[in-house]
Amino acid sequence: MDSNEKGDKLKSGLGKFARYTSLAFEMGIVIFAGAFGGLKLDQYFCTSKPWFMVALSLFAVFASIYLVVKSLKNEK
Description:
This protein is an all-alpha fold. The protein is built from 2 helices and no strands.
C-alpha cells in the first residue's frame, strides 16, 4: 500500500467522521431551537403548563430524525 492509498483512506475516514459529527450538531441545534421556541411561546401566552415546549420539542426531535435519515439515504 503506497502513501497515496493511505492518504485517501484517511481522508475518507475523516470525511465520514466530519459528516456524522455535523449531523449530531444539526440534531442538537434543531431540538434546542424547538425547545427554546416552545418555552418562549409558553412565556408569551402565560400557559400554566409547558404545552408549547413539549409540542415543539417533540416536533423538533421527529424533524431532526427525518433530516438525518434523509441525509444518510442521499449519501448512499
